[in-house]
Here is the input.
Amino acid sequence: MTQAIFFDFDGTIADTVNGILATMTATFKELDIALPPAEEMRATIGMLLGDALQKLGNLDSTQRDLAVKTYQRLFSEVELPNTKIFEGVEPTLKKLRSKGMKLAIVTSRGIGSLRLILTKNNILDCFDELVTRDNGFKSKPAPDMVNYLLEKMQLAPEDVLVVGDTTFDIDMGNAAGCKTCAVTYGNHPKEKLKASHCDFLVDNFTEILNVVKY
Here is the structure.
């Protein structure tokens, strides 16, 4: 029986793609770095910010650090106003909570921006735990973030569902021995998600209620 759900954030709970691409674009333009194609920028969503910017801009370590700082400075002005929670997320989370389900987020995003978005959309209180890149674990698809939560929340892998929109999320959950559910409305295409060997595939966030067995 599923006792807890660990959610990815970007592309799963929040529609952040427009905000992320706009902020990446503004960052590269400000630093006079050649602008990568939008498809390439989108493909890095789910990676650590520094890794994504470094890969996209072919940056050295000094340029990487400057790009991260520039992006973070631009966040409130560019990304935050362009970010919204997907339809059906709030009522679904609240229904899961009412059934006693433990909920957590595992994300490559930093804790500061995550809390800002959750607070702005009145869903911060829906989550028992938030694990982000600031916790210092290996990035997805390594299972470290999930394993940390399993131990902290005293849960068996088979009692946890990991939900995400990328193969990074599904591979992470599978590596930890959890059940996995891919959402098709995010950043990786449906066929790619099917190939990741997820246990479930849903087209709408509310369908997670049909996946979970209380």
User: Anything to note?
Assistant: The chain has two domains: 4-15+83-211, 17-82. The chain has a mean pLDDT of 95. Residues 4-15+83-211 form a domain with the Rossmann fold fold (CATH 3.40.50.1000).
